[in-house]
Amino acid sequence: MSTEKVVRMGFIGMGGRGTGMMLGEWMYYPDVVVTAVCDQYADRIENAQNEVEKKCGKRPFGTDNYHELLARDDVDAVYIATDWCLHIEIAIAAMKAGKAVAMEVGGARSVQDCFNLVKTWEETKTPFMFMENCCFDEREMVLANMVRDGVFGTLVHLSGAYAHDLRDEITGGRIRRHYRLGEYTNRNCENYPTHELGPIAKLLGINEGNRFVSLVSVATGCFGLHEYANSDRCIDKTLKDRVFAQGDVVTTILTTEKGQTVELRLDTSLPRMYNRALTVHGTKALYEMGPETVFVEGSGEEWDYMKAVNTFRSRFYDKYLPDCWKQDLSGHGHGGMDALEIRAFLDAYENGTPMPVDVYDAAVWMAVTPLSEASIAQGGMPQVFPDFGKH
Ligand SMILES: NC(=O)c1ccc[n+]([C@@H]2O[C@H](COP(=O)([O-])OP(=O)(O)OC[C@H]3O[C@@H](n4cnc5c(N)ncnc54)[C@H](O)[C@@H]3O)[C@@H](O)[C@H]2O)c1
Question: What's the DSSP call for residue 210?
Fold first, then answer.
């Protein structure tokens, strides 16, 4: 790590994630200086300015217009944590303005947007990293080392999920000004594929000699969200009888050029524990996260997967745990992976080396959303997976 350089950062999108990451993770590093913040809401700009000033004594510039932030000379790089629909538009503008980009995760609006993102990077070569923090989680990094070392033999089938009960967040969207409500009202798709797909794609060597060639998606009806919106637990009574487009569970299957399959599950509007449900199955080994689970909402039951995790740890951690996970990361977001992904961005930016999760990764992983939307709308018809040009 180089501490000689200082990266002057602008932050766009000062909601829960943007503010939390700026204060707790980015500002943890001495080579980061916050020079500007941006949000569409005045109170969020002011809150971010106040918090930065409290923490480091210097008040950053604030604006509700991201173009104004991008035009500033005192901004070297930006972190984008707005609604999903704006990520690519802002990232393109930032790259054109010569500002390095750290872009938060979420699905794309369209496949064309993904091509536009890649094209802009190829034209400008402005540093760009897709901030998929799950690629930096401990378990996923151990598995990456094991796959690299041949423990799994030839990979055959991988699966994962974004299984997270978001009914309160989604239905609280109008009151708390959160974008997910609009997404679930208007779209039916695999809307958040990258937390599980990112690590899986890295294990499969997608964009490094392998590529996805097809995708099919199917969706259930919208039962859970509808029931919740009509229950006493929903804080927004105006949502009674709202018709949501988004199905509760979306299942997606991708195939690769090398003959492997990947199964993804979006599962965000039924009662459940959080789970990314990663499975890695090769010709020589199987990794499966957790034993059978029964979770009855409100019963206080705990999902006890520690035994399986302990076996995995005791057998493989000594040899395969990367050095970055041997430091004390307590107190950092998501167990420490947020701090590690930011360090990876800063190191690559400062040293002029390739970003560990690049614009081609972003395009492939984000394209799953519009492709799944098309497949669901056509009753599960296969979609040809676009080729973004890096294999
Ligand atoms: N990697 C992770 O673990 C993780 C966790 C949470 C959220 N996220 C991602 O972070 C992003 C933000 O999530 P959140 O929960 O904080 O949402 P949020 O709705 O709380 O925050 C988004 C913010 O963007 C602002 N915004 C919208 N349009 C804007 C514009 N034109 N200019 C400036 N600001 C604008 C909104 O006003 C809002 O404050 C999402 O993309 C989400 O997927 C990632």
Answer: B
